[in-house]
Design brief:
Layout lengths: L18 H23 L17 H16 L3 E5 L3 E6 L11 E6 L19 E3 L2 E3 L3 H20 L8 E6 L7 H9 L5 E4 L2 E2 L2 E5 L1 E9 L7 E6 L9 E7 L2 H7 L6 E6 L2 E7 L14 H11 L5 H16 L10 E2 L3 E2 L1 E10 L2 E10 L8 H12 L1 E9 L2 E2 L5 H14 L6 E3 L11 E4 L1 E2 L24 E3 H18 L7
Parallel strand pairs: 3-6, 3-7, 7-22, 8-23, 9-21
Antiparallel strand pairs: 1-2, 2-6, 4-5, 5-24, 9-20, 9-22, 10-18, 10-19, 11-12, 12-14, 13-14, 15-16, 17-18
Length: 495
Amino acid sequence: MRGNEENMEQPMISQMPQRQEVERWIKEKLPDIEKDLVRICKIRSVAEVTGAKELPYGTGCRQVLQEMLFMGEENGFEVRNYDNYVGCISYGSTTDEYQADAVGIWAHLDVVDEGDTAEWQYEPYKPQVKQGYFIARGCQDNKSSAIMALYVMKYLKECQIELKHGLQLYVGTCEEQGMYDLDYYTSHYPSPALSLVPDSGFPVCFGERGIFNGELISNRAISDDILELSCNGSRALIPDTATIILRWTEERQKLLDGLSEEYEVNRIEDTIRITAKGVASHTANPRAGKNALLLLTKVLCQTKVLEESDRDLFDLLHVINSDYSGKALDIDCEDEMSGPATVTAANAYIKDVRLAIQFFSRLPVSSNEIPFREKAAAAAERWGFQLEVIKLSKSNYFDPKHPAVSVLTDTYNKVMGLETKPFVMSGGTYASKLPRAFAFGTGGLPIQRRPEGLFLPGHGDYHQPDEAIAMERIEKAILVYIYSILELDKLEKIV
């Protein structure tokens, strides 16, 4: 990418609305955009996959879906609630009848659990704007995309621009917990002819890696020297803290004296607690953070603080996170489109006196025929563990030669004055569950750096404490999407 947009030429797109007029319209709407984003971000919409009092995914998800559909009605659009799993706001087409050439924009309104709120500088469900950043859980992933798409439709409506292909905004309620909302929707209702998912970076993401998640349980028990093991990792995040409690001995205390500031060591009566402090990042990109489990196992496996039999068990956990390649489980592979596999151990705990390790993988898009389950199970057995598969799903691939890919990539590049290319990503989006779908935006835009000191390290990004999004990013994403929909509409056929 080049520098910030302020230093670029602002090319005009032929036979399109004047850029200055579009930008002026967006700028005028920013106070309303902020208010509407507050309306849905103040609702705690963590999907409850099991045990929800209000079906299907709990009170918060139902409330946020209703609020979003209210906004659609307030702006004069037709709306439809698909059994509280998915909602739809429609422009230029009807939600009662499936339109064979409609374009769908898919956002999700559920959010990742906020975790320990003591780690937040700003309250997760009291949205605020500070130094140009909107701060609230879910504002970046993915509620801002829903509001962005609504304002794209609002622009078209206010400017009385007719589309020959219908445009529909779909909003789901269980993306973060397994996309079960889309499993339901696609098995009961038809999908648009083409679907765009603004839950990645610009320009077009034509491929999403496969997913292989599992739990490894040691065949033999740990010793009674280990009293407790815990961390705050998850399917979405590597842990930024990991703790083990051991029986205290004078020798252990001496071995642990003088550790770096990444560790806290405390004696509590006849126990010793070791806590490693890392930096959270998405499990699909663990190298962007600092895995607290890796820090902890460095001490456990590279000193004699544990007995040899215990060190042997923790060695697998350490090796998995040492290079994130998957070699430890014999599932390392790569291709030219998407690069190497990524395998991350993000959670570990004691399960019935045995060591349990949860790992999360992203696999190359061309690897769908590799027997990952069998390979990993055999490797686990060699390490002295049993494998339990949590999730194994194929990669998603959309033909990068499709005309829509070229149109949207070219439009983004013209609007932003860049020379980017379609790409493959490690994260998973609704595109993996929809026919004829790919991700498009809203990240990767050239914007000003975050103000110094606004967020602590490991804070301010999606899934992190103090999740935030720059209002500048929302503004530019709306601009890109307005032109993109207008250019896409020029295609005679979108399938």
